[in-house]
Write a structure and sequence with these properties.
Structural class: alpha/beta
CATH architecture of the largest domain: 3-Layer(aba) Sandwich
Strand content: 25-35%
Distance between the termini: 37 Å
Number of helices: 6
CATH class of the largest domain: Alpha Beta
CATH superfamily of the largest domain: SPOUT methyltransferase, trefoil knot domain
Number of strands: 12
Shape: elongated
Helix content: 25-40%
Radius of gyration: 20 Å
Order of helices and strands: EEHEEEEEHEHEHEEHEH
Length: about 250
Amino acid sequence: MPKVVANIFISELRGNRFVVEGAKFHHLAVVKRVRKGDVLQVTDGKGSVCNAKVSTVSRDCLWLDLIDQITTVELAPFVDLFTAPPKGERISWLVEKCTELGVGRINFCDWERSVRKLKYKSLARLRKVAIAAMEQSFGAWLPEIRILSLDDSFSELEKHAVKVVFVPDGVPLNDFAINKPRLALVVGPEGGFTPRELERMRKIGSSFASLTQTVLRIETAAVVSCSYFKILNITYNYKQEKGESS
């Protein structure tokens, strides 16, 4: 089979033909220089992927023909990130990197010491950032991005059996050998959680971990913590395949 030259997002994978128009067509035709006969990976952002061949390229669109069956890529573990929104363009970097890592959901929480109050109109732009990151990284999962109030954040956290909150005086992260299908990771604002928030987190059964001996920016802490648990899952699965003890 020819080399797959690009990964593109199409929200609904129905039928055997797909059309690509607008800005995405321009990117493929002008930037990527996609031509008739090239093979692309197509994903719906919900784990379904397939390969499709470019059958027609016109002035304003291209058509793709399905050339193999649609398969499903597992998202393991499902990381539900609860984080304060970083300031400025750092929030785009956070969304980009977490999407590349395969984070299942990104919740921007209005913690008591949060400096930035994220507006709902920002979600459309951040979704575009996530789509571009998923396509670039050949991912198959587009994270859901939400804005949560303080009380809604705690309500959503209570739904998780495993909740890891990152604080300076927590247990070293390498003490957490957690390999669960779903977990919540909680990152506070750069001013830290308030005593009242920490008490609420204790009451709902959260664990407390530290990342480093230095003070990290919000986006750094988010990416480091998500990376750790993704790598932990990969390592665990590799040992299982090799028949080694964890």
